[in-house]
Here is the input.
Amino acid sequence: MKITVMIDIKDSFFLDYKKKLVKKIEEKGFKVNFINNRKKISKGNVLFCISCKSILKENELCKNNFNIIVHPSKLPKGKGSASVAHEILKKKNKIYITLFEASKKLDSGNIYLQDYFDLSGLELNDEIRYKQANLTIKLVLKFLELLKNNKLEIKKQKKIKEKILKKRYPDDSKLNINKSIKSQINLLRICDNKRYPAFFYFRKKKFFIKIFDSNDG
Here is the structure.
């Protein structure tokens, strides 16, 4: 069985976990290929799209028997971008990940697997991403095991009226200096110290704030 893993977002956090995922898949006895561009999609059995911005076209979807999108939300709720950040900003501590079949309509394909990880409300970005990555790997391996044993089950998504979550940008990490730290703690938690650190303006000058867990030092 030929497996392909695609991550086409250049600065995706999951690139730090790519080797671990590939190794785990290989340990299960599958042949796996990693790509970072939709143009490199080749014929195979399963394509996993993790941290991808591309919407695959029909001629790309037909190259694999399964085109699996890994999306961090409890679909059909949470369609769109940056769903983990949006959930944490809503003070949610149960974060879902869904594996579903790619389709022409955004985040609307049939669901294969769905699970969640818990947060205490104290985790910062790196720890949140660590938990997200580990559950992603677990679900990918579970999908392959079920497929191998012909035990995959399909669940159609319910049609609901739901706003598509907006993409978040570095400017969304802006703090309001007139508000308390406590009221903005969840925004601080989802800021990435390297890629999109928290910042504020004071007397027209921009200042960055980096946040660390005391146990990191």
User: Anything to note?
Assistant: Helices lie at 18-27, 58-61, 83-89, 125-148, 185-190.
